[in-house]
DNA sequence: GCATGATCTGTCATCGATGACAGGAGGGCG
DNA sequence: CGCCCTCCTGTCATCGATGACAGATCATGC
């Protein structure tokens, strides 16, 4: 495993087979005429030399790198992004494409440098699963690189993949209504909160949709929206904050205590479950809990009923959009949007409302 | 966002500034002599043309792509790999390197094609966080690409990052001993199980170490290893199987029922918690549970005491090893191994052994 | 006055694959 | 016999950046 066994080049193979590089290339790609006899000769030379195409040189010549760039917040610890990333990579691989991943950690600085890295490497397209600064999307677009935006409602028209969060939320609510629940609390992320780094409104569309889905569901049932049952925080990952909020809700007198909590993501639901256990509130007997995403859900105690996002499919769809756009060539086509649906997965954390907890509104 | 604004090349910039490409390159990289006046001129031209270095051309010329390849089982759903992947990317980014990620899903086929993809793209090094087929490592090595193996005890000497799993396991056991536990069950993965796809023994080193750590801890305490308290299954993700095993342990008569369970990963611990709840066994009052990895641990109910792996640091170390090796040039140096330690994180799932549950062995 | 060296800049081959193009051999047909 | 078409193969410019090399200018020192 010593110094570095120079990989054979086309020219080496050509020399070995006693033909020109053009002929080798023709054999390699199966286009143009090549005599059967020559073909065998070349194949043998390829095998013998252990030739491996140099994708770098090919990329330079073809002006196509067969590589996608994927910009996301962070592949860890939120499994949602990891799920999407997996889908992207799987679909890309099907087309022989590689994926360069950039984790921004939500920092504009890193997003900028990450996009720069991708553009320098001349990736064929960039997928944004999160955007800190709209400017970076423009930035990519201006350099002529196709862009796919995932789960965003950006003012910039590009290819896009969206999930119907509102409908998912309504489905979760319908499930709770069906179990007889009336006082359903919502714990989520404030779509209007502007974080330090200045997360743009576009990303917050997801949060807005989930909250709106909750409200709309109540309205359609002809129920009033009790604002005191809605708790919004600034970030998904503020586990302590979620526990505190949940604690407050659970300590209310039985008449006004919610019989169910709809959390805007599994992580928040997990915090609710922890707090319920701490206070000795039985789930689902005394409290039903629903999450969103289906990331942690199956592993929680009790296993969490949740609105599952098709993470894998989201990633695949995004990659497919990008690859299709590339195949169809410069027809920088109409900015298509692919819409995906969520699925309600019922597990053990939801159940019929307790007899005692009246419908008192 | 029309057709495709050809990005300016060095030659374009040179033309704009009225100098040669060599001069532009000198300005760009700050080497060689350039008159201050010329420098300004060139800088202006660079800015005006929106020039962006073409890393593909540079890669071809320099025979160095500033890109790492990362082969892992799957970035989702096991957050361990995602954590490592994040660390790798972060460290690579610090050196201006990109990361091409390959998810094998544990399939030899995909691992093979993934490694092929990376080699074709001439990545500067390949990091393996999981290996299905040893041959693929050799494969990479033979082509002169530096390799870093993470958490493996491979017969092939390469750069490597390992974590002291045995010590971590012993630490967890010491914690339980300290709480007065005597009958401690171990639920893990069978290091000798050969899966369909033929997972090699090397990968199973991790499992072996955790199990051995458990055994060794008992021995050091002068206790016998009760084989009937050890339950091994073939895969990490067989949640149902884990539940069943845990169920069996918990249904034992009080005299022989374990007072604590040490699970070889958080996922398994999560299943134990679910089963305990289902049987009405209180955690930690009647049963203490310890996990491994610190992935799901903080979100479970109750929050799980676990042996934390420094996932991020593992990834960073792996990337650093690779980058250092590259910097030090062809000195394909002695296959260094970096060793990292685990940390016991005590949360709510462990507590003193119940008074009733005697030390009966 | 001239050699020496520092400063500055341009020319050009190179990395490896690709494909446009040219050209040669052979067969069929009028 | 001449023309054209099919089959087969080689030559070479090209993609964009790099760096070795050479050439040019200017100042300094003896």
The helix/strand order of chain A is HHHHEHEHEHEEHEHEHEHEEHEE
Oligomer: homodimer
Beginning-to-end CA distance, first to last residue of chain A: 75 Å
Low-pLDDT windows of residues of chain A: none
Cα-atom radius of gyration of chain A: 26 Å
Measured by residues with Cβ under 8 Å of the partner chain's Cβ, the largest interface is: A-B, 72 and 71 residues
Secondary structure tally, helices of chain A = 12
Please give the largest β-sheet of chain A.
Answer: 6 strands, parallel
Structural class of chain A: alpha/beta
**Average pLDDT number of chain A:** 92
In terms of DSSP E residues, the strand content of chain A is 15-25%
Kindly state the number of beta strands of chain A. 12
Adjacency order of strands in the biggest sheet of chain A: 2-1-3-4-5-11
Q: Portion of residues in helices of chain A?
A: 40-55%
Silhouette of chain A? elongated
Give structural notes:
The structure is a homodimer of 361-residue chains. The first copy, chain A, is built from twelve helices and twelve strands. In chain A, 41% of the residues lie in helices and 16% in strands. Chain A is elongated, with a radius of gyration of 26 Å. The first copy, chain A, has 361 residues and is an alpha/beta fold. In chain A, α1 (10-17) packs across α3, α8 (165-178) runs parallel beside α9 and α10 (239-250) packs across α11. The model of chain A has no long low-confidence stretch (mean pLDDT 92). In chain A, strands 2-1-3-4-5-11 form a six-stranded parallel beta sheet, with helices on both faces. The first copy, chain A, has helices at 10-17, 21-29, 36-49, 55-62, 79-94, 108-120, 134-142, 165-178, 205-220, 239-250, 266-278, 311-327; strands at 67-72, 98-103, 125-128, 147-150, 159-163, 184-189, 230-233, 260-263, 288-293, 305-308, 337-340, 343-345. At the A-B interface, α4, α5, β2, α6 and α11 of A face α4, α5, β2, α6 and α11 of B. The structure holds a DNA duplex (30 and 30 nucleotides).
């Amino acid at each position: 495993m010593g110094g570095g066994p120079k990989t054979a080049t086309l020219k080496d193979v050509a020399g070995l087979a006693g033909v020109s590089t053009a002929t080798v290339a023709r054999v390699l790609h199966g286009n143009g005429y090549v005599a059967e006899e020559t073909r065998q000769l070349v194949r043998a030379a390829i095998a013998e030399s252990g030739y491996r195409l140099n994708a770098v040189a090919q990329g330079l010549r073809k002006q196509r790198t067969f590589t996608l760039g994927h910009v996301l917040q962070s592949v860890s610890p939120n499994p949602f992004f990891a799920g999407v990333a997996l889908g992207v990579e799987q679909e890309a691989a099907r087309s022989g494409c590689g994926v360069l991943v950039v984790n921004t950690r939500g920092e504009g600085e890193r997003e900028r440098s990450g996009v720069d890295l991708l553009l320098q490497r001349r990736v064929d397209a960039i997928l944004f699963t999160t955007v800190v600064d709209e400017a970076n999307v423009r930035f990519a677009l201006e350099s002529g690189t196709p862009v796919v935006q995932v789960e965003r409602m950006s003012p910039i028209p590009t290819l896009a993949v969206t999930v119907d969060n509102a409908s998912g939320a309504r489905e979760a609510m319908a499930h709770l209504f069906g179990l007889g629940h009336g006082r359903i609390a919502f714990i989520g992320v404030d779509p209007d909160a502007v974080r330090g780094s200045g997360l743009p409104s576009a990303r917050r569309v997801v949060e807005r949709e989930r909250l709106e889905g909750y409200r709309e569901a109540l309205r359609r049932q002809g129920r009033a929206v009790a604002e005191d049952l809605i708790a919004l925080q600034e970030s998904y990952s503020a586990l302590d904050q979620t526990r505190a909020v949940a604690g407050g809700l659970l300590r209310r007198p039985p008449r006004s205590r919610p019989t169910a909590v709809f959390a805007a993501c599994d992580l928040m639901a997990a915090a609710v479950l922890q707090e319920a256990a701490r206070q000795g509130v039985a789930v689902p007997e005394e409290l039903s809990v629903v999450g969103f995403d289906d990331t942690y859900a199956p592993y929680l105690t009790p296993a969490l009923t949740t609105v599952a996002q098709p993470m894998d499919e989201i990633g695949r769809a995004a990659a497919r959009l990008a690859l299709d756009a590339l195949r169809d060539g410069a027809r920088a086509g109409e900015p298509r949007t692919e819409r995906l649906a969520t699925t309600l997965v019922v597990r053990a954390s939801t159940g019929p409302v307790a007899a005692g907890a009246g419908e008192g509104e």
